[in-house]
Specification:
- This protein is an alpha+beta fold.
- The strands form two sheets. Strands 6-5-4-7-1-2-3-8 form an eight-stranded mixed β-sheet. A two-stranded antiparallel sheet has the order 9-10.
Length: about 220
């Protein structure tokens, strides 16, 4: 049957109604150890989509959000370098289905002559999209299934990033202790964490350090 006559047979890239998303941040799940929530936001809309991801992927995404450069490339940095070395671009990430608690995604790659679509975990696709400046989309159906409306937001006055007022973010753990550090102590701590490759904690310390610098 012709794709134009059957909307369900179209690939996500062919759908004119797909919904653009942006990455809001990472939240730590206080109820389930080792689980993080990647929060995606509808572009120019009130809906948010939480995606549960593991610590390694959360670390990779958080580092890119906080612009932390590791001493050695992480897996997603390596994939970015490989794609660029072969003249390939990632043109889109499409989160096209939600089933049994799992988000299904695919990435679209092109070298200018050939375009391919590859199945991907959503966390990996987002980690790459952040590094390559690739737009992220979903379908209206996935948005309706998994999205929730959030109107009250907190705005980080220094970074310009938004985060849910009701979420416990990566920065919330042990904040009283870390927040008491001086800027010099935070800088030393950040350098030590990066040297030890504890990038998850480094992302948290970096965010606190930027806030303190902005208040000087």
């Amino acid at each position: 049957m012709d794709n134009d006559m059957n909307p369900d047979s179209r690939t996500p890239q062919d759908r004119p109604d797909r919904v653009a998303l942006r990455v809001m941040g990472i939240s730590y799940n206080q109820l389930q150890s080792g689980v993080y929530a990647l929060l995606l936001a509808q572009q120019d809309g009130p809906y948010r989509i939480p995606v549960m991801i593991g610590p390694a992927e959360a670390q990779s995404i958080a580092m890119r959000i906080e612009n932390i450069i590791p001493p050695r490339p992480l897996t997603h940095d390596l994939v970015k370098s490989i794609l660029k070395s072969f003249g390939m671009r990632m043109t889109a990430v499409d989160i096209y289905r939600f089933e049994d608690g799992v988000f299904y995604s695919e990435i679209t790659l092109t070298d200018g002559e050939r375009t391919v679509t590859i199945d991907s975990r959503t966390s990996d696709a987002i980690a790459l999209a952040l590094r390559l400046g690739t737009p992220v989309y979903t379908t209206p159906e996935v948005l309706a299934q998994t999205g929730f409306e959030m109107e009250e937001m907190e705005l980080d006055e220094n970074s310009g990033k938004t985060c849910p007022a009701t979420e416990d973010t990566l920065e919330s753990r042990d904040v009283p202790r870390i927040e008491q550090y001086s800027i010099e102590e935070l800088e030393r701590t950040l350098a030590e964490l990066i040297e030890k490759e504890d990038y998850e904690e480094a992302a948290r310390v970096s965010a606190i350090l930027e806030r303190k610098r902005g208040k000087r």
